[in-house]
Amino acid sequence: MPTIYSNIRVEGSPALVGMRSIGASMQYDGDANHRRHMKKNAGRTKKQATAYRVGFKKMRTQTRKHHQHQINGKIFHENNQGWKTVHVWGEPFERGFAHGALLYKDLARIKKSLPFMVKTLINIKFSEYMAATKQIIVPIVKTYPEYYQEIRGISAGASQKRLDISTDFLIGWNAFLSLYSHFIEGKSHTQKIERCSAFIATGNATKNGDIVMAHTTHSDLITGQLLNIVLKVTPTNGHEFVMQTSAGLIASTSDWYISKSGIVCCETTIADISYSPKFGVPFFLRIREAIQYASTLDDCIYIMTNKNAGDYSCSWLFGDTKTGEIMLLELGLATKNIRRTTNGVFYGMNSAIGQELRTLETTDTDFHNIESLSGNRNYRLNYLLNTQYYGRIDSTIAKKIMGDHYDMVLGKQSMNRRVICKHPELDIASLYKPYSCTDGKVLTTSMAKNLKFLGIFGSGCGKREFKKREYIREHPEYKEWGSHLEDMPMQKWVVL
Which residues pair with 314 in a beta bridge? Predict the structure, then answer.
């Protein structure tokens, strides 16, 4: 089995430590020289003295630049139809440093918004949230030294850009969905978590017999707007991979992955969980390890189930583009559902497919209820994938499915909260809450082999434009959200 890389430098590379020491001594000596020369040149003309000071300041600036940490990364597109594409590489701390330095502006927005998200979505004080982070999550992350160092690097890279964002804060950000599960699920005040619609198909279900995978994120609009980063990671150890993510994260959390190993993955959450997580290894560490180190579907099963915390319970959809096999891996806490095939379709819509898991570890009664949010999508996805398009599924049809607005109850197209490309922000039944489908992604085997996919940012249908001021004016009850939201124009599908 793959093992986590642990031979890493705790305080950065020796070269980096040396450069910091050299840089500090040069700056000190430079300051001393500056004072000596100012005394020496006290008799110079004002023009001569000014010229000297400008020249010296320029020299100090160049010295500091020379001794800054090398950025092992690059931004390829700042805004490609709403997406920002980034590549980082190298040792854990080094690639984390590049991540933080390149995405510091995005991290500043997260630093501002996470406390609001905790207060609004989890309904606790941020101090309580961070206390849980330090008590529960940080000690576990430290047992994964590769990922702990990567997070430390993100903090250090942001610091170079004069953004103070601590390692503990970033671990708290990575653990947001895990701690949401910790504070919400299995409690008397349980809130329904319904994030995403997705499917994976292969063999005789698809037009070319290859794997086709598609996913659309359903989220509060703050989180959804932050998930516009397409990050390519080339680690020193393990497989190169691409994921949709947000700045500061070491795993996707929208959960869309393509690995050079041939493994592809996405997921949808399982709603109405009846238990509280028991940590265990949080999901974001397990899925990151799987994408970076797994080479087979068996590897994925082992990594995802080993020390499973039961947090953020999901219907995971995996595919192996080397073999054409696909897998549904549903994880609760003590119960799992695993199905594999080389001919057929698996999909997710927030209700567990496995009856045993649904019965034993959820309070879900919506699976067969066409009027419910998950039940409506269950019937619609089953019809589209196993009847209307079976045997013809390709990237074009996948995009069409991800943008589908057909309501099985109404018997017509409707941009509401029940459909595949859901729109609670337009639905009075959801009190117009700032929650929506915020993107769409599609890949085929041939795309995945090149670490590419098709993506649309804003909504899976491409038909909804979100204007913040207009939305707040029409729904003043969400005025507090205004400073954390941005406009989302209608975008087009692009190759990423």
Answer: 269, 331
